[in-house]
Amino acid sequence: MTENAVLRLRAERLARATRPFLARGNRIRRCQRCLLPLKQCLCETLQPQNARSRFCLVMFDTEPMKPSNTGRLIADILPDTEAFQWSRTEPPQALLDLVSSPDYQPMVVFPASYASAGREVLTVPPKSGKPPLFIMLDGTWTEARKMFRKSPYLDNLPVISVDLSIVSAYRLREAHADGQYCTAEVAAALLALAGDEHAAVGLTEHFTLFRERYLAGKPHHQSSITAAEPESV
Question: GO terms for biological process (predicted)?
Answer without folding.
Answer: tRNA processing
